[in-house]
Write a structure and sequence with these properties.
By secondary structure, this protein is α+β, with helices and mostly antiparallel strands. The chain is built from 8 helices and 12 strands. α6 (about 185-200) packs antiparallel against α7 (about 205-210).
Amino acid sequence: MYDLVALPSAGLRAAMRNPSDALLCADVSGLRSIIDDPGRHLRVSVAIVDYDMPEMDGLEFCRAIRDLPVKKILLSGKAGLEVAVDAFNDGLIDCFLQKQDQNATQALRSAIQRLQRLYFDDVSRPISNALELCGTTWFSDPAARDLIQHTVDHLGMAEYCLSTTPPGVAMRDDAGNETFMLISDRRELDAQIAAADARGAPDELINQLSSGKSQSWFPTPDGRYSADYYSRWQAHTWPADDLHGNTHWMHSLIPVGSALILDDMRKIA
């Protein structure tokens, strides 16, 4: 199982508002290539190290990779328990397990999942901070993060990737099937309604958006309605549920079609 938060490095660019003000922005122009690149799975997030190894013991190995961001689990026997506790307290390892424990296998699985999440939180933090400058604050809202993690766990997703255009999370299961969670706030919904009204959208679309029970995203430069979708707006509009966190969010789970959303946005990026 992979537990991944990824962003295309090529999609981060500096946009200068003025000579003294640089703003990082993100798009999904490279997200599809990132998702489909099997080489990204070669990155090690958690190292499982046995204390009893020939030539070099587990702690020596952990010291050798101390400067790497990888999380470390030390497997120890009874004789190495005190040493493992000291190593944990010193920050040399992130977790230790006793090999003779009857529940060692399940404990190891749980530790790997927990440390994978911590690892990706660590490596994603600079990106999430940059995204907050762009107004993508849902990524740092605990309520939204809890919802995303619950959805990933409930649906058995193998990985998920953050997207800013469209705003939300692209998820993929072990079989490669994709689901997209579209996330927006009331300001974005109001902008969707205003654009639909100004661009002559069908009354039914405007009424659905105005009800606060649906949201849209169109493959247009601003993600909002255009006349090209007058007869096809239903394909880009989904039921939405409320989420109350730092602000009032709306989220729609799109089981089929996330690939279309991302591919459409890649074409116009």
